[in-house]
Amino acid sequence: MSLLEAQKRVLSGMRPTGNLHLGHYHGVLKNWARLQHEYDCMFFVADWHALTTHYENPEVIEENVWSMVIDWLAAGINPGSASMFIQSKVPEHAELHLLLSMITPLGWLERVPSYKDQQSKLTDRDLTTYGFLGYPVLQGADILIYKAGQVPVGGDQVPHVEMTREVARRFNHIFGRDSGYEELAQEAIKKMGRKHAKMYRQLRREFQEKGNHEALEKAQALIQEQQNISLGDRDRLFGYLEGGGKVILPEPQALLTETAVVPGLDGAKMSKSYGNTIALREAPESVEKKVRTMTTDPARVRRTDPGDPDKCPVFKWHIIYSDKDVRDWVQAGCTTAGIGCIDCKKPLIDSIIKEQQPMLERAEQYENNPDLVRSIVAEGCEKARTIARATLEDVRQAMGLNYR
Length: 404
Ligand code: ATP
Ligand code: MG
Known about the structure:
Radius of gyration: 25 Å
Bound molecules: adenosine-5'-triphosphate, magnesium ion
CATH superfamily of the largest domain: HUPs
C-alpha cells in the first residue's frame, strides 16, 4: 500500500466499559459517521484498553462489547461503508506494541497527562501497573498497524496521538535508514563548520530524545541560514533531524469535532466514571428527568436572579443542539431573569429526544438480530488482520527480524 493511500485511512476505537453517551456522540461518533463516506474507515472495540482500568472486573467488558457495536450502528455507522472489529481478535496489535515499546522512552509515557490525571481521579483502583503506563504505546500500535492518516477522537486523546507521531518518527529514524545515509548526513553536518555542527547535533538530540519541538524549529532555522551547502545536503540535514530515511510508519493526525469535550450533567467532562452522562440510547422519560435536574449557573439561586449563560453547562448544550433563535432567546431570557432554568431546558429536552428517536429504532433492529451484528464484526476482523499482517511484515523486515 502506498503512503498516499494510507493517509486516506481513518482509525479510531472505544473502550467497551459501559453505554456510550452524548459525549461520545458529539465528540467523536458524528465525525466517524461523516468520514465513513469519504475514507477507508476502521473502528475497533478496544477491549484490551478496557482491561487497563477494569482488570479486576472484566465481566463489564464482555457485557459491553456487543452493545457498544450496536450503539455505533445506532449512531449511523454503516457496515457497508466502515469496518468494525475487536482489538483482541487482531493479535498483531500486541506484537507491534511490544516492538514499539522497545524504542519508547519512559519519560514520554510518564509525561502523558492522562497518566497522572486518571490515577488521581479513579482512586478506587490501583492504576500503578505496567499496562496502564504503557497503554499509549498500545494505542500507537493500534493506529500505526493500519498506517492510518487520521484519527477522529475527543479532545482528551490529542496528547496520545501526538505521542504516536513521536513514536512513529523515532521508529522511522532508527529502522528506516538506507545504507550510507548516516555517513552522508554526518558529512553534511561537518560542512556547516564546527560551531554550527555542534549546535545542530545538540538540537537534534534535544528533539529526538525529549521531543522538544522548540529545538526542532531552532535546528531548522539553523539549516536555513547555511550559505555554503548544496541542496542535497540541505535536504539530508532536514531529514536527519526528524528521523530521515524511509517512512515505514506514517505519522497520524488527530481529528476533532466542534465540541471536542462535551460537558456532563454537572458541567465536568461527560464520563461514565463521573456518573454525569446521558446515554446515546437513554429512555425519553429519563432524558427529561436528567436534564431537569442538571446543574445551571451556580449564582442563579432564585428564579428572580439573572443568570450568566457562559457559566452554565446547559448553555453549552444549547450550542450543540439549538439554532440561533433559541440561543438568542436563552441569552436574553437568562440574563434578565425573563425565563427560568426549567423554561430554558425545555427546547433542549425536545431536541435530545428527537435526535435519539431514530437511534433507538435502528438499535432495535440489531438487538433483535445478534447474528447480524456478529457477522459484521467478523468481517471487519478479517479485513483488519489482513492489513495488520502486511504492516508487521514491513516492520519485521525493517527491524531485521525476518531471518529464517
Ligand atoms: P468515559 O470517559 O465515559 O469513561 P472513556 O473515556 O472510557 O469514556 P474511551 O473509550 O476512552 O471512553 O473514549 C472513546 C472516545 O470518546 C475517545 O475518543 C474520547 O476522547 C471520546 N470521549 C469520551 N468522553 C468524551 C466527552 N465527554 N467529550 C468528547 N469526547 C469524549
Ligand atoms: Mg477515555
